Each structure stands twice: as structure tokens, then as C-alpha cells.
Amino acid sequence: MTLVSLPGLRDMIEQISQRHNLPQSAVQEALREALLKGYERYRRAQSLDRHQFADEYFDNFNVQLDIDEEGFRILTTKNIVEEVTNSDHEISLKEVKEQLEDSDFQIGDAVLVDVTPGQRDFGRMAAIQTKQVLLQKLRDQQRKLIQAEFQELENTLLQARVLRFERQSIIMAVSSGVGQPEVEAELPKREQLPNDTYRSNATFKVYLKKVRETPHRGPQLIVSRAAAGLVVELFSNEVPEIEEEIVRIVAIAREAHPPSRHVGVRTKIAVDTLERDVDPVGACIGARGSRIQAVVNELRGEKIDVIRWSPDPATYIANSLSPARVDKVLLIDPEERQALVLVAEDQLSLAIGKEGQNVRLAARLTGWKIDIKDIAKYKQEAEEQPSSQESEEIAEETSELAGISETEQK
Questions:
Q1: What sign has the CA pseudo-torsion 356, 361, 367, 368?
Q2: pTM of the model
Q3: What are the chain's domains?
């Protein structure tokens, strides 16, 4: 077989591997792709006056690296036919028998053929054509490894540093073990918090929402400060009982972008435990509020309500309206999940919250439609309304009167 010599191939692969922090297998794959691209360009240049090749024309070609001999070969798969119409994709049975003695190949079979050009024809051109492609292929390999690394980290917490501002997005740097110490991530406008002050080199904990691959820039890390998952991850870091699955987070509702600038960012989180001796709310708050305060500080003062989950909807709804005190919860329509909550007059505004934020978050947390009323006014309205028996008596009297009136008219 023909071999195009590449002196120092082994050392080159080792050096590139160390410089780009890539495994040697990834470097070899990038080199094979680059050499194949160089061969394509060589062939296109040779056939410029005859015909143009389609994009998929060279799909059946591949490069074989010989590390020991420090060189490479170009191989292609050809179909055995009676009459050859395309010498790049087809080969006659006669040629196969001449090249491969004692072969059992038949028409219709596929055979691997060495099509490596001579050293003089291709060697220098390959070196020139391949260098730029190799750099691009190395970057592609690096992006693939970065993508694989961060896809495993989706929906987790990362430490990020502000690099620069692009339009309304913030470009941040997150740590990576592949190729470079830091990888760029995008914090879009919709994922930013109004409480945050984003300055160059400021550090934040962010939630990795998605690893997105684009044709030109490779994988893009989309991070968030507004996702509810960020609060969950922060509590998981601060509360060992959550990490050990003694305490579990059942539900969370977060309003990171309130409808008005007069209303702050707020979160409600419902927790539960199967351990009788463990207070899940107390575990999340910590001694003197130390655990929840660490989360609040990271979120720049965001208000967080930790409430106890309950399998009883009425109890759960009452808890969800914390810090308001609830007198009674009436499940008006369990199928439609509609509830009426009765509170004292001095608790009404607290239960509803500024611009309805508290009841809105409670409804999202529990999955129930919640209507809140003053208990005193509700009782007064109930007393003023006739009972069902009285209503029936009134209806009967009205019917009798209507009958008398009709008789008199006759």
C-alpha cells in the first residue's frame, strides 16, 4: 500500500493533545478529518476543468493513520460491477482479482481499495491544505467534548463570572475541564433577576438550563438566574437533609419577573419529610435562619416562604398562604380544584399580597384556584341569605299565589 509520509506524526499528536487538553484519540480523529478534507481539495483542483464533485461525492473515502510508520493512506469503498462508470465508486471484478489474489469477491460485493496519491503529488499540498482545516477540526472536537461535559451538568448549579455584555444578554464564564479553563455561557435578558447588579468580573451562581448546539459557534450554554431550579439547587447545597433525601422539596413557585417594579421577586417552596423527628421547614430555615439566609443573600434579598406540604388540600392551601393566618378553607369544587379561603379582616391584605402576589404564588404552588374573603363579611352575607328550606317555602308560596291569581282572572 502507498503511504504519504508525515515525519514526526507521533510527537505532533502528543503535543497537540497536551496543548489543547484533548485525548489523543480525539486529535487523531480531527487529523483524519483534516487530511480527508485536504484530499478532497486536491482532487477538486485536479478535476477543475472536467467536472464538479457533489458534496457527498467523497463520503465513501476515509483516512488511515499509521502512527508507527508516521504516515497516512487514503482508502475508499468501491462496489464490484461488470462495467465501471465511476472509477471512484466502482471497480471491475477483473481489477479486484488482479489486486487481491485468491479473492472470493463477486459482482455486487464491496471492497476496500487504496487510492493514496503519490508523495510528490499530494504530500506538500496536503500539508498546506490540511493545517487550517486541522485547527478548525480541533476546535470542533473541543466543542463536542465541552458539549458532552456540560450536557451531564444540565439542571445543576454552576459558578459563573461576568465577562461582557452583548445587547440585552450577559456573557459569562463557567469553569470547564476540557481544553480551556473557562467556557462562555449566555445569560439572556429573560433569565436575569431585577435584584442583581451585573458588573464585569462579578460572580454569581447560575442554573444551567440548556446546552444548545449551533452550526457555527458550537455548543452554547444557556444559564439562568430566574429559574425555579436555581432556588432548589441552592437549598440542596445549604440543607444536608435535602441532599440526604431526608427532606424533599415537593413543589416550588417562583415569580422572578413580577408584573410591577413595586413588587419584589418572591418564591414559595413546599417541603415534606417521612421522618417523624425531623421538622422539614426548620431544617430549611436553619439555626437562627442561617440556611435560608445564605440562599436569600445569593439571590440578593429575594423573599422566600418555606411551607409544610400536606396531603390534605385544605391544610396545604392554608399553609401556602403564609405568612397570613387562615381561619378556614372551603373546598368549593374539588373536581375543578376551586377553594374559598376565609381570613380575618386584618389578614386579608397579607393573604392576598401586594398586587395579588401572595395568593398568585399559593395558587401556582398548590394547583388550586384560590378565592379569599373576609370571614366576618362572609358570615354576614350567609346570614342575610335565606336558608335552602326558607327558599323552598318562598317558592311554594309564590307558586300558590300565582295559581290564585290565574283562578281570579278566569
A1: negative
A2: 0.69
A3: 4-149 (3.30.1480.10), 153-224 (2.40.50.140), 315-410 (3.30.300.20)
